[in-house]
Design a protein that fits this description.
Blueprint: H1 4-15, E1 22-27, H2 38-45, E2 54-56, E3 59-63, E4 68-73, E5 78-84, E6 93-99, E7 103-109, E8 115-120, H3 121-129, H4 140-147, H5 154-159, H6 169-179, H7 192-212, E9 241-245, E10 248-252
Antiparallel strand pairs: 1-6, 2-3, 3-4, 4-8, 5-7, 6-7, 9-10
Helix pairs in contact: 1-7, 6-7
The structure holds zinc ion.
Length: about 260
Amino acid sequence: MPELPDVEGYRRVLRGARGRTIRSVTVRDAGVLRGVSAAGLERGLRGRRFREPYRHGKWLLAPTDGEQVLAFHFGMTGALVLSRSDEPPHPYDRVVLALGDDLELRYRDQRKLKGLRLEDRASARRLVARLGPDAADLTRQDLTAVLEHRRARIKAVLLDQSAVAGLGNLLADEILWRARVHPARRASDLTSAEGDRVLAGTRRVLRTAVRDGRVPPRRSWLTGRRDRVHPDCPRCATPLRHRAVAGRSTYWCPHCQPEP
Ligand SMILES: [Zn+2]
């Protein structure tokens, strides 16, 4: 599932489309369009060029040289691919933008849970304003404001995009394992030292994951162990525990992350 590092990877893909004229817009499956029709998408984009794209949380925004901003949310299975025009389309390519004569930007998505919106500049700003600070730019002050007064479980708070934008299920578990904080702790109960460790874990995990364009399943990471038949802690080899926390499949080490 695309989280901040994956979307950052798609931002790099989209940068490859900068300055190229969108010659045609082909909607192969309108099930990924949100708040815009296929005709409206074509009207807004054809003949335009993409400017520098930006990301906030899991949203990727592609301003054009007109008033329109193309906004992507990748849901569970979305991806953005820059292909040569002569490469055959993938069965899950839902929207194809022809760029110049030889390139295509393809929005690929199996499950179509989210997709593409076409916003004007002001509504694109409002879209981002509803989100919390981007997890990659999180400051200690941001985190303090997010944690205090919240009785929800820390994992639920990290997943709440209006609190912190960009974290998904894998990142939240990885960060809490690094911070040695149990995922079911109440956010407001975290000590200052635990808050410091959550922030340090967020920065460290994101630095590596953004470079990789995904949450890497390294053996030294919780993410690299969670899909094993008998997952154990990379730090202390204790068998990991697993249950739903905040409605999501959650792994933690009962030794490193003691129960509240
Ligand atoms: Zn452990």
